[in-house]
Specification:
Layout lengths: L1 E6 L2 E3 L5 E9 L1 E12 L6 E7 L4 E3 L7 E6 L4 E6 L8 E11 L5 E4 L3 E5 L2
Parallel strand pairs: 2-11
Antiparallel strand pairs: 1-3, 3-8, 4-5, 4-9, 5-6, 7-8, 9-10, 9-11
Length: about 120
């Protein structure tokens, strides 16, 4: 009953920028944390950035200073602004949210992913 839909992926040259969006919809009572993970070919999925309902953020070291996570609570949407992109940022980016619904105190939900390719 909850869906996360990502958008904004694509092909970009090294040094370029992209902005990912993820909108949550459905029987949502409250959204606690929202975040972005990524999975590169042959690698495990890793946390990129997370933002809690109060606005505190956390980033993996490799994206600090280049990526910015933000959220619009009124729209149940989380964004990931990615600047100074590098080829090693190439991955499928997944949206994640910990959400309370009318029937669950809280559980993890995942989007289907959006591909980001950084290449010249």
């Amino acid at each position: 009953q909850v869906q996360l839909v990502e958008s904004g992926g694509g092909l970009v040259q090294p040094g370029g920028s992209l902005r990912l969006s993820c909108a949550a919809s459905g029987s949502i009572f409250s959204i606690y944390t929202m975040g972005w993970y990524r999975q590169a070919p042959g690698k495990q999925r890793e946390l990129v950035a997370v933002i809690i309902s109060g606005g505190d953020t956390n980033y993996t070291d490799s994206v600090k200073g280049r990526f910015t996570i933000s959220r619009d609570n009124a729209k149940n949407t989380v964004y990931l602004q990615m600047n100074s992109l590098k080829p090693e940022d190439t991955a499928v980016y997944y949206c994640n949210a910990y959400i309370a619904t009318m029937t669950h105190y809280g559980m993890d939900y995942w989007g289907k992913g959006t591909l980001v390719t950084v290449s010249s």
